[in-house]
Write a structure and sequence with these properties.
With 140 residues, this protein is α/β, with parallel strands linked by helices. The chain is built from 7 helices and 5 strands; from the N terminus they run βααβααβααβαβ. Helix 1 crosses helix 2 and helix 5 packs across helix 6.
């Protein structure tokens, strides 16, 4: 795992609360290891938005609010906002890699990871591997 932290993607945060998700157990185990080791999970406001929207759609409002509360209170999560230069860099990355299936949120994540020199991601999204990052959860 990267010494500067690991990146937490939507599939990781969703798997933490979705007990039927195939990545649930690996996500819980990975998060527990991070908590014990003091490694921070870096994520973005775009990932939080995507995670809460997905959780609301696939589970329920109560679980979504519980997840939001936990994310806000956790000292292990380092939230990075996507504004100004990061947003412009994300648009540029999105345009440059339009031949891939990357979402805008993926591109924003890659930009933040590059900026912070984070090479590993807690995700099941194969796009992270395709973009050159280490994926720490089983991919679909």
């Amino acid at each position: 795992m990267a010494s500067r932290g690991v990146f937490g993607d939507t599939s990781f945060f969703f798997a933490l609360v979705a007990k039927r998700d195939p990545a649930h157990r690996p996500a819980v185990v990975a998060y527990e290891k991070l908590l014990k080791s003091g490694v921070r999970v870096v994520t973005t406001d775009y990932v939080v938005d995507e995670t809460l929207t997905l959780t609301r759609a696939r589970i329920d409002a109560r679980t979504t609010l519980t997840l939001l509360d936990r994310m806000e209170r956790s000292e292990a999560i380092d939230l990075k906002m996507l504004s100004g230069e990061r947003f412009l860099a994300s648009k540029q990355y999105f345009r440059k890699h339009s031949d891939h299936g990357y979402s805008f949120t993926d591109c924003a994540s890659f930009v933040v990871m590059d900026e912070l020199e984070i090479r590993a991601a807690l995700t099941t999204d194969r796009h992270f591997k395709e973009a050159g990052f280490e994926v720490l959860l089983p991919t679909a």
